[in-house]
Write a structure and sequence with these properties.
CATH topology: Rossmann fold
Number of domains: 1
CATH class: Alpha Beta
Shape: globular
Low-confidence stretches: none
Number of helices: 2
Helix content: 10-25%
CATH architecture: 3-Layer(aba) Sandwich
């Protein structure tokens, strides 16, 4: 039986690669998730994500109690199609301050697996494209 945890994070899939958006309540998880969905990502989970370790990979699933739901502040809960069982390729810790100009890729250990991680302000207009660029950078580095 695989290990399993439930964390406060939203998760989307970009071309089959899972992205975690990790933050507390009101940190911008849902807002950034909506922008990524608008740009073609697929919803895995909003607000709470179940992570399961299988071998040396961490997979993302929606929390069963809220799967397919995204909280749109000022509008309410909206139902979206969702996917699951997506390998996590990158994580973003949401911050509410200015980002550093140039950074080395950091790593967050999740269930004993190192996941490339960046700090990002989710309310910047460029946040969604930064997420995709960081994922692209990670995928390129893993090919070498």
């Amino acid at each position: 039986m695989p290990e399993e945890i439930d964390i406060y994070a939203s998760a989307v899939s970009v071309n089959g690669n899972g992205i975690l958006l990790i933050g507390e309540s009101k940190s911008g998880k849902s807002d950034l998730t909506l922008r990524l969905l608008h740009d073609g990502a697929e919803l895995i989970a909003d607000d709470r994500t179940v992570l399961k370790k299988k071998g040396t990979t961490v997979y993302a699933f929606p929390n069963p109690e809220i799967k397919g739901l995204v909280e749109v502040r000022g509008v309410g809960l909206i139902t979206f199609p969702f996917t699951e069982n997506i390998p996590v390729a990158a994580a973003f810790t949401l911050i509410n301050k200015e980002e550093e100009r140039a950074v080395e890729t950091d790593y967050r250990e999740i269930m004993g697996i190192k996941i490339p991680t960046w700090k990002i302000n989710p309310f910047y207009a460029s946040a969604a494209i930064k997420v995709k660029l960081a994922l692209h950078k990670t995928l390129l580095e893993n090919r070498q």
